[in-house]
Automatic annotation (TrEMBL):
<dbReference type="InterPro" id="IPR035595">
    <property type="entry name" value="UDP_glycos_trans_CS"/>
</dbReference>
<dbReference type="InterPro" id="IPR002213">
    <property type="entry name" value="UDP_glucos_trans"/>
</dbReference>
<keyword id="KW-0808">Transferase</keyword>
<dbReference type="Pfam" id="PF00201">
    <property type="entry name" value="UDPGT"/>
</dbReference>
<dbReference type="GO" id="GO:0008194">
    <property type="term" value="F:UDP-glycosyltransferase activity"/>
</dbReference>
<protein>
    <recommendedName>
        <fullName>Glycosyltransferase</fullName>
        <ecNumber>2.4.1.-</ecNumber>
    </recommendedName>
</protein>
<keyword id="KW-0328">Glycosyltransferase</keyword>
<comment type="similarity">
    <text>Belongs to the UDP-glycosyltransferase family.</text>
</comment>
Amino acid sequence: MAKTTHIAVIPSPGFSHLVPIIEFSKRLIHLHPDFQVHCIIPSLGSPSSTSISYLQTLPSNINPIFLPPVPHNNMPQENNNHTGFQIQRTVTLSLPHIREELESLMSSRSNNKLAALIVDVFAMEVLDIASELNILSHVYCPLSAMTLSLYFYIPKLGEIVSCDFRDLQDPIEIPGCVPVHGRDLPDSLQDRSSEVYKQFLGRSRRIGFADGVLVNSFTELEAQTIKALEEEAKEKQKKPRIYPVGPILHSGSAGDENRTGCVNWLNKQQPRSVLYVSFGSGGTLSQEQLNELAFGLELSGERFLWVVRPPSNNPSAAYLDNSNEQNPLDFLPEGFLERTKEKGFVIPSWAPQIQILSHSSTGGFLSHCGWNSVLESVQKGVPLMAWPLFAEQRINAVLLTDGMKVALRPKGDESGIVGREEIAELVKSLMKGEEGKEIRKRMSVLRNASADALKEDGSSTETLLQLALQWKNLGGEI
Ligand code: UDP
């Protein structure tokens, strides 16, 4: 009988932190079926219905282990608005249960060894337990290599700069990366006296102790950055090795599209004529911004497919708590739906994104620049309009606009609102203008490169093979 290698993976709470590490696990067992993955799942409140239905489709060699949910009222009030804080805090409060599960996996007769532990970036506190239990530990970074570089660079930047990074005049030069203004760094780095800044520094210190970091990017997409990371790892013996294994994405669930009817609508549109508008699994606009976007789309005269959420002044309002039952369509400007019914299709809260991006009628994507959405757009070759909201999305927007040059980014006014005229201009430019054409060409090159990275002899497949062999050789076999 073939020997089985056991590994454990630990996502952090939230659909888009669960999916990447599970999709990584699926890819691993697809290429190397002699692996068994134990997925230990912390959650804030009960896992969302989207997460539950996603987990119901797992193959038998991925074993989900649900931890007791952390109640929402265990979150300190003062940082209740900060998604990253809540995610990491949930993991901290779940640590005793995680330890129990790991010990139980280690001691059960059939799993006398775990070959490796792989944790999400927000679950890095588990690395301390891994080290005590003597398990090889890796971090799965579902982010760009540029954001990963920031993790390594931030302690150094903190030493050379005394002010808040957002007050720096010149852009920051992270090794191997496109320069980025301090104001475009993640929210958690904006105020150096804050608790979330301290949390970021803690993660950044911890990542240095991992045995390796798997990053959901690929050599051809972020060549300079990955090279700089690899060189640094070689120079400093203690730095973890970097493994670009992406793009690893979920394939979308069949049948989803019938619920909204949007694919039927796309079937009736001209090739590449529709702008898809979505702010990810939880991105939320203020009422004022929602109005401007609605009028901007209308003014552009272009076709659009828009996933609308009820407004909030907290841009990540729906990220961990999608219990808002208000009808998002009630918040659209009066008469908007009627006036745009020939040109637009509006979906409340959630859309089958992969199917939409794969559809030949989709010609552009106005995105909040979550890294999964970015990779999905790259994989399908869809030009982007970059509209970052929170977390590390502004860094992704800089990478897409200044680095890869595959996106247009609105500037907005002093108060951060993007006005209808600017929206309309950019949408037209992306969908019909010369700039849009150039962007499309560059996106096609990236799309081909992303397909190549996943071929049998592709860069990311080779990297995963190295890892799998390492884990098999190190133990966990029965
Ligand atoms: N997604 C989707 N339908 C939606 C919104 C999001 O299928 O209406 C999926 C999307 O395809 C992506 C993930 O949810 O895989 C969002 O991840 P991303 O990193 O882009 O953003 P986040 O949700 O973390 O802000």
